[in-house]
Each structure stands twice: as C-alpha cells, then as structure tokens.
Amino acid sequence: MSATIKDIAEAAGVSAATVSRVLANKEGFYSQATATRVRKIAVSLDYEKNTSAVELVTRKSRVIGVIISATKTNFSDKIIEGIHAEAIRHGLSVIMLYAGQNDPQLQEQALRTLIERAVKGILVVAIQLADENLALLQASQIPYRFLSTSYNSNKLPSIASDDYQIGYQATQHLIERGHHKIGLVAMDTSGHIGQQRVAGYKAAMIQAALSIEDDWIKEGMYTYEDGVRAMQTFGRQPEVTAIIGASDLAAIGVLNQAMQYGIQVPKQLAIISIDGTYLARIVRPQLTTVTQAFYEMGTLGTQMLLDQTQQTVSQFTPIKIETRQST
Amino acid sequence: MSATIKDIAEAAGVSAATVSRVLANKEGFYSQATATRVRKIAVSLDYEKNTSAVELVTRKSRVIGVIISATKTNFSDKIIEGIHAEAIRHGLSVIMLYAGQNDPQLQEQALRTLIERAVKGILVVAIQLADENLALLQASQIPYRFLSTSYNSNKLPSIASDDYQIGYQATQHLIERGHHKIGLVAMDTSGHIGQQRVAGYKAAMIQAALSIEDDWIKEGMYTYEDGVRAMQTFGRQPEVTAIIGASDLAAIGVLNQAMQYGIQVPKQLAIISIDGTYLARIVRPQLTTVTQAFYEMGTLGTQMLLDQTQQTVSQFTPIKIETRQST
DNA sequence: CTGAAAGCGCTTACAG
DNA sequence: CTGAAAGCGCTTACAG
Predict the structure, then answer these.
(1) What is the pLDDT at residue A71?
(2) HTH lacI-type domain: from which residue to which, for each copy (chains A, B) (predicted)?
(3) Which of A40, A313, B61, B142 could serve as a FRET partner for B7 with CA atoms 20 to 30 Å apart?
(4) Statement: A163-292 belongs to CATH 3.40.50.2300
C-alpha cells in the first residue's frame, strides 16, 4: 500500500541501500545531492518507515514497556508522566499494559506481550509480581525495574520511597506536635510497603517511650473507603488524637468521616497523609503530607533502565513532610 | 539469542512451516501428535514469538495507539481504563503517547510513531489536532477516532458527550431550583466544547426569560486555579447565586474560594460541576454534577474503531445529573 | 497432514 | 560515494 524504500530507490535512481542510509542519516555515505533528492521523493511519496521491519533486522526496539495496576492509585499518574517525559527525551515509545494487582494470569499476559515485542526495558509500577511471573521476567533477559514497589529482598532493582522512613517521619511529626496516641489507617500490612511503614511507626513511638495499642492500627488497601471505615471504628470519641492515613485518599476518608462526626480537624484530631498528591491541596482543611517524589521515580527509573551499568542498583527517591492545615 | 521457530523445527524434526501453524493454532494442518511435541519443545526452549516478524509478514498489528494530552485532565483516566479493558478483550496491546494540548510538533511526532508502527487504529483523547496533523492522520489510512473531543464539523468520527446538552441541563437544574443569576466558570470558549456549553447555557436562560450578563461568564482552561480566580472576580458579595464549573476541579476551586470568603454552599451559593469524577464525592459539601460516561467513551470508542462498518459514525455517550449537596 | 520456497521491508558488512 | 546480496523471524499460497 504505502511506499517502501524500494519505491523511493526506483524513483531516485539509486539503490535501496542508499535510501536506507540517507533516511537513517548515516554520515559520510552519500553526496549531498543524492540525499536531498531522496528526501524530497520520500516526502512526496508519503513514505513512513516500517517499524516492524526495522526492529526485525536491527534486533532492538525503541519501546519501553510499562505494567501498571488496573485499580490505579492516583499517584501512578505522576510516575507515568515522568516515564513518558524521559522516554520522549530518548526518542522512545511507551507501551502500557494494565494488570490486576493480584491476578497472576493478567500479569503473565502483560509480560508476554512485552517480551514478544522484545521491548528495550520493562517498568513495573506499583505491582507486586507473582513468583512465577518474576521468574519469567528475569528469564527474558530484558532489563526491568520496579517503581514504587520494594520487595523484601533488596535483590530486585527498584526505585521507591523509603517506607520505613515514611512511617517514622510521619509519626515523628505528630509526636513533635504533642500527640501520644496515634492511629495508623488503611495500610496493607501483608505487603512489604505496609510492613516497613508500620515498623517505622513503631520505632518512632518506642523511641519516644510511647505505648502502642493494637487497635490503633487499622488495616486496609489504601482506599478512600478504608479511611472512612477506619474512622467509623474509632468512633465519635476516638481514643487517638492523631491519625496517619496510608494514602491521600484514605486520609480524606478519615477526614470526611471525622467531620461527619463533628470532630474538628486538626483541633480534636490531627491527620497526616502519605503521598502528597494534589488531592491533599484541594480538600479543606488541606492535609499535611509525607510527600513522595513520584515524577522522579518515573524519570529516574527510565534513565536507570537504559543505563546498562546501573541495572541492578536500587534507589530511594526523597520524601518530605509538607505541613498544611490538618496537623 | 532466544529460540526461533527454526530451532523448534529442528528439535522436533518438522519444518518451520509446521511449527508456525501449530503455534498459531491453525486448524487441520497437523496431527495431534506433532502439535503436542512442538508445543512441548517450544516451552522447553523458552520460545517467545517475535512480534516484529509477525507484523512484518502479516502486515497488520495487534496494537492500537492512543494519543493523550500531557496536561492531563483527571477524567482521561477513566477513558483510558475503558480503552484498555476493551483492548484486552480483543487481545490487543495499547501504545500510549503523550502530546501537548497545543503543540503541533509533539502531536506530529506522536502520530508518526503510530503510523510507522502501522497500528490497527488511533484514538485521540481530549486533544484538538492541528490541521496539518489531522491531514497526516487521514492520509495514513489508519482508522481513527476522537474521544471526548468534538469538532465543529461533524465529519470527524468521535465519541463525546453532547456539550450543548451539558450546558443546557446544568443551567436548567439551577433554574429549577429558583436561581436567576447564574455564572459559568473556567470554560475555554475558544474550543468547540466550550462554545457548545455556553450555547446550551444561553438557550436555557433565554427559554426561562432570564437575562444574561457578560461578566457572569468567566473563561478559563478547566483548571482548579481558574475556578479559584473566577470566584475571586465574583468577590465576597457575588451577584450570581449559582455557578456552573467547567470541570470538577474548577468547581472545587470555586467552592474552596467561596468557603474562604465565608460564603455558604449551597445556601448562599449553589455550585454544579461538569464531569462527575470521584473528586465530586470526596469534597465537602459533595458536588452536584453533570456526569459524563468516560469509561464508556473508552470502550465504545475502541469497539467502533475495530468495526469497519462504523468507522465514520460519531456518537454521543449519555450524560446525567447527579444531585448531591452543593445545589 | 507436511514441506520447500518466496517474500514482508528494512539494514549492513562487503566489495568496489 | 554506491550497490548487490544476505539475512532478520515469521507466514502462507502452492504442490504434494
């Protein structure tokens, strides 16, 4: 249908090889005159390079693959933005596939698609891979990296926040403001992230010689509803005077339910949330947050994926406390 | 590096053609025995099909391309979710490219990447293409469709809401609640969407024999900040008693600034917003919205892209008013 | 049921 | 500076 290199060659009276070289801007292989002629004809023929053919013959692709969770956390947007920005800088395309948070079969399907495509690298965003899929990924020889997911073992290359520090600093912030009874809400403690944050929380409490009640910690999956439910469990007369929300949305759930109960924030209940997306700024009172550097996770992750020498190194992106109206 | 069809053929003692047929599940071309043997060897060799080669020879790809705005509106998430869901149903991959809202060069780059890849179809989400890029897209012969963008001419295939109706119904809702002075905030009237909504707004006002002041309409680009600024212009003693926000975020901007002024919502000022994403439900008071069917835009758009007979038809997805606490 | 052969559109040593 | 030729990994009429 569309024009090929051969059509151009014919029209220009040169070989396909020369056309290929001109179009790929290989230096020193042709005269200025040929180049101009070839380029002009290419344009006039509406020529578009066939990427499949190029990838087949060069055996490498200009694509990086991203696997993200279908039940998207609202922070993944920023990570993806970062990935795209960095990809564009390198002239790469991004192919994105959704996979369920805990659906090994969907994960496998997504992985295979990327492997068949022989992508340049694979970024796994906020998803914990099933063991067999991790093995599949590793067997593929394709460079990969986890973003915003850390594993128990540090052997897997990742870019994420230091979740222990997140838990610790959030708690510390509250303790400094005089709170002794601090709740922790909507964290999934079956995963490494949740465990680390709880560990950080406990460390800060113990260091301040504060005791911890088991039911100050309400588990969840980081959702808005988990926040609401947790606050309902605390009730109208919560024992705690401050709460750490596992995500901005969870914290907003806590906030709304607290307001529903007529509890004043921050006067009667302080709230700090983890993530620091724009949501924290559009609610009232605005939420104090432990802000993560999501955009940087995306850019840095992409860079390190492309850098052969860095392939196995894991790294933390910085976090910071942003004090607003809720503490 | 990795195993090819030839390696399998050799190991199985059959031809590459047979392997190809088995692996593609072509019926009636081989004995059950051969098939099982070939499949087993394929697995043991960690065989992964080379998509480039397949696409090159079959001259069609299993990929659909999506171009979205880099300055993402928060509703595009839902559209993209819909696209992915439908793509997975059809065994297709999705390649996503960001392009600036008004950067013709980035648009062209994104388009060319997709065209070179000979994708099966192109979905343009919430972006207005520059004329020359539209021409490029059309010349490519690749099926395409605009999502959540309607053009002046109805000649371009799109899936979107009826923006005239959005403007009309939002206004109508307010009028029914006794409002006579109604503001319209953060709409970009340089685009078709904004123009249609304003037209719907005016029609409803005129039909109710209400007059319209020019400065009840505050332009903007649908952002949170536009909402805040608009409310600042209305001031502490706004002439209007109700405001239509061009997006959920814009409406939240209005809401927050109004609360800042000590204006009570909805008692002193009613607010209705357009979009109806989850944001409307997590703020207090919850926002009444004209809710758009974004997820359906994604699924329907993808379906129609794949359906040859429907390629030129444009369609509206339904809208509905969801009454909450702000009106 | 199976295979030999041609070909998809491109790149790149190799030889001039 | 330029071209002929081989080859990337697969699919698919065609002939048996």
Answers:
(1) 64
(2) 3-58
(3) B61
(4) yes
